[in-house]
Amino acid sequence: MQTLTNTDFNFEGQKSVYHGKVRDVYDINDKYLVMVATDRISAFDVILPKGIPFKGQVLNQIAAHFLKATEDIVPNWLVTVPDPMVTVGLKCQPLKIEMIVRGYLAGSAWRDYEAGAREICGVALPDGLKENQKLPHPILTPTTKADEGHDLNISHDEIIAQGLVGADVLDQVEKYALAIFERGTQMAAERGLILVDTKYEFGLLDGKVILIDEIHTPDSSRYFYADTYEELFEKGLPQKQLSKEFVRQWLIANGFMGKEGQQVPEMTDEYCKEVSDRYIELYEHITGLKFDKQPCDNLADRIEHNVADALKTL
Predict the structure, then answer these.
(1) CA geometry: angle 221, 223, 226, nearest 5 deg
(2) Is 279:54 a contact under the CB 8 Å cutoff?
(3) How far apart are CA 85 and CA 273, in angstroms?
(4) Contacts for 159-167 with beta carbons within 8 Å, 24 or more apart?
(5) 275-281 contacts: CB < 8 A, separation 24 or more?
(6) Comparing C-alpha atoms, which of 26, 54, 14 is closest to residue 38?
(7) Nearest 5 degrees, angle CA 130-CA 233-CA 155?
(8) How far is CA 188 from CA 5, 38, 66, 280, in A?
(9) CB 36 within 8 A of CB 85
(10) How many CA atoms lie less than 13 Å away from 97 in the CB half-sphere?
């Protein structure tokens, strides 16, 4: 089964291209971005050697689904989805922060809390909380967007003091983030899921705040299964998650955590298909839609043709 693991397009009006861990982003006339969701998969900041069939289609279509479902709350960058693996959107000036919203004490926030922190990004937390406990209300724990190295936690006041984002814009971004999270929480509940925490990115276009990038995908969000949450929480057991955590666990079990000298375990065709099946399961569970596998022969030719046709109409 073919996968798309690298791209080298030359679209009409193309100014530049950025190759990320998973997505390749083409700048068209400094006005539009063509974002190609490849089949690459990364873990521990390492791009794994084999692509996962249909992964790009899964992530692109989940993101498009939730962008369309929240466009009544906040304007977003999406213009069209000309191909199952591609989103074309407006080029915005990205804000230099990522807005993380947490409804539960999990992940890095729990690790900080367990280590003794009682304030995260300027938000005070009470004593006595447990891992994966629901917070009294969703909290905002922004991070910087580092050009190199890791993103760092930052508070509302620090963002303004460092001149990263103006006060008026930051207030608007915070309101938008909480409102989108509320919508995502409602949509997750309808699917028997809990939206635990997630990441949003925003930009400016002509001075207006715009939601950019992907939202509510398994790569940018953490979901728990609602039907087992209470029992597992009361017993202090790990939650059943809907995310790509199963890939990280497989790597760990096979001796790889991205550290120097460690070797990525062999990714057989059978294993790649198993991961593909899990991603399709994620898509169907999160969206409630049946996944329609698109033909995966000549992926690059298909994308090039579909994007070229779309750009002519913009």
Answers:
(1) 160
(2) yes
(3) 18
(4) 159/97, 164/95, 164/96, 164/97, 165/95, 165/96, 165/97
(5) 275/41, 275/52, 275/55, 275/246, 275/247, 276/52, 276/53, 276/54, 276/55, 278/246, 279/52, 279/54, 279/55, 279/58, 279/59, 279/218, 279/244, 280/54, 280/58
(6) 54
(7) 40
(8) 30, 25, 11, 17
(9) yes
(10) 26
- DSSP class of residue 84 equals T
Are residues 159 and 165 in contact, defined by beta-carbon separation less than 8 angstroms?
yes
Segment 235-278, tens digit of pLDDT: 999 998 888 878 988 999 999 998 899 999 999 999 999 999 98
CA distance 16 to 38: 18
The pLDDT assigned to 149 comes to: 59
The SS3 call for residue 263 is coil
- Burial class from Cβ neighbours inside 10 Å (0-12, 13-18, 19+) for residue 276 reads buried
153 forms beta bridges with 143
3-state SS track over 95-149? CCEEEEEEEECCHHHHHHHHCCCCEECCEECCCCCCCCCEEEEEEECCEECCCCC
**Start-to-end CA span in the chain (Å):** 33
**Residue position matching structure tokens 């790009």:** 56
Q: How distant is the alpha carbon of residue 155 from its chain centre?
A: 21
Beta strands at 46-47 and 241-242: parallel, antiparallel or unpaired: unpaired
pLDDT at 148 over 70: no
- For residue 151, the 8-state DSSP code is -
Q: Which amino acid is present at 58?
A: V
pLDDT for res 55: 95
Q: What is the pLDDT of residues 45-91, one digit of tens each?
A: 889 999 999 999 999 999 999 999 999 999 999 999 999 999 999 99
Measure the CA–CA gap between 303 and 310, rounded to whole angstroms: 10
Q: Assign 240 to helix, strand or coil.
A: coil
pTM of structure: 0.90
